[in-house]
């Protein structure tokens, strides 16, 4: 099975370049990258119907999205592997890395097995599961990290439930180190952030909402970096969203610790004032930050201090969002909206496309030891073809996800996914 | 002078001239309420439902009396004991009530923004009787009316708000209203009871009470809730009274004719000295209660006028 995409603007995050060229795909891998937009290849090698003229649009390695919540098992009415897979394909996400914060939590090899089977049946994109770090995400006893790795877990995390007992966390990280397992933390000081719905400051005070100081993130990160120093574990902070946490991250990297960090699409594009009159679709975890913080984390993505951008796709049904702000559930869907939303940063000249795809595809793949995320000969043909300029008005009811909780409903965006390929096969093509 | 609001959800959306309109009408009702037969029929045929998701005696009674004096049919719903306990969501409760076609809905709720959310789902006029730590607009209006009647004006005054600012919706509404009317607002309290970012509201913040009270025209005390007293936010009741309780010595730093206010219910000997609270030369606490009825009458009168107008324009009764 071969495929040739010609006249494409090739986004190469490894080289940091954009060039006009073409890509030949054979047997699910990139067989050749041409620096000529229309290489002379006979129809005997690639038949006419396996060619696509990209018309100068962008071709980039498919997105690897770390931290996607799919509500199986437990809340399939919110999202299933089928619906999430469709949403991912429509958003140019070719690898979903799922969270274990389901009901029940994915904390045994048996539940992981169930999840993998469901995922492979239903989703058109790659699905790689993360597993819980402690049983039931309760923070008391570590899970069977070895068995879970054998069953295919790519990382271990208790998601937004911070392991409060430092002794438990230090033991889990020590054990994980021996197996080379990646531990994903959620940097927050849990007592300070308990019950908070916003970031403390003028906005929270004006609205009378319970708030957490941005310093809670730095405290959480400081503790976890100290544990990395103590245990030697491989560590990834799921979301760094505040200015105050960045120096601690930079110091850890400078000292040579195996530490990386991510940030959500929402914290890169929205700030606390977007909540406005208690709009619960803007309630995410951690809460949206100040505009200064937003700009600082955009800059950190640019310099590479923050390695990974994720959607932190969190489906919630209407009932759990149509409540007073304090009581409403946190999270937003993002698989399908991430690429067009992040184009805001490209159009504002904050981030160029190779930098964006370094954080969306290359770095997350490298962190998980995957071969994808590159636009190079021999890499898996997980690709996204998109138009970065096409104007769209987002309609949440047209999203593929079962849940429609996006803060970008009605937003005017520029950027549209034209086609998504997983292992060389087209899994989505826009009409 | 106009009043263009559909609901009264807070002080924040009000223009200064709307506040003046409200206070002018309240003044008339206040005078009228002192007459032998204060009742009118401006709300005759209208239904007012009081929905209190949080305990209240004073505010609910004040709203009930205001509605009755205006000739409305008033119904009180004890939301603590109702279907809310059975798991019904706020929106379902709102839709159920809306189907009963009330004209005025008075709502108190423990969560900030809940009254706002409810107002989006009903056809009638909604009055916020306090939502979480957000706003309590009629309290700020009755405070403003009391000040205006006592001081003869509601601008260029120096007003100190003292106590638990962080947890107080009364403080937020007052800061907004007094700021809109161009007064100098000072906030006094221990830093643990001060909300973050409050300096950006155009107020001065003091943690020393004597310094904060210097030469003010009005002293507004706030209630310190029992559950905040022991160790959590302040070390103890007696230390709080020593540093932030209003007594005649501390009041001596304010202007000689400064008035003392309290939204009630008071903790005598915690935030205010009992004798001072009863001093008819300084304390206007009873007047505040009296003005409460007048302000609520005026608010409901104006909202009902707007409601009638909207219904004439949209006879189908659609959500507008």
UniProtKB/TrEMBL annotation, chain A:
Residues 56-242 form the Dihydroorotase catalytic domain. GO terms for biological process: purine nucleobase catabolic process; pyrimidine nucleotide biosynthetic process. Keywords: Pyrimidine biosynthesis. CDD domains: DHOase_IIa. One of its GO terms (cellular component) is cytoplasm. GO terms for molecular function: allantoinase activity; dihydroorotase activity; metal ion binding. The keyword rRNA processing does not apply. It holds the Pfam family DHOase. It comes from the Bacteria. InterPro entries: DHOase, DHOase/Allantoinase_Hydrolase, DHOase_cat, Metal-dep_hydrolase_composite, Metal_Hydrolase. NCBIfam families: pyrC_multi (TIGR00857). This is Dihydroorotase.
Automatic annotation (TrEMBL), chain B:
This is Aspartate carbamoyltransferase. The gene is pyrB. Carbamoyl phosphate binds at residues 58-59, 108, 136, 139, 264-265. Residues 6-148 form the Aspartate/ornithine carbamoyltransferase carbamoyl-P binding domain. It is an enzyme of class 2 (transferase). InterPro entries: Asp/Orn_carbamoyltranf_P-bd, Asp/Orn_carbamoylTrfase, Asp/Orn_carbamoylTrfase_sf, Asp_carbamoyltransf, Asp_carbamoyltransf_Asp/Orn-bd. It comes from Marivita hallyeonensis. It catalyses: carbamoyl phosphate + L-aspartate = N-carbamoyl-L-aspartate + phosphate + H(+). Belongs to the aspartate/ornithine carbamoyltransferase superfamily. ATCase family. Heterododecamer (2C3:3R2) of six catalytic PyrB chains organized as two trimers (C3), and six regulatory PyrI chains organized as three dimers (R2). L-aspartate binds at residues 86, 169, 223.
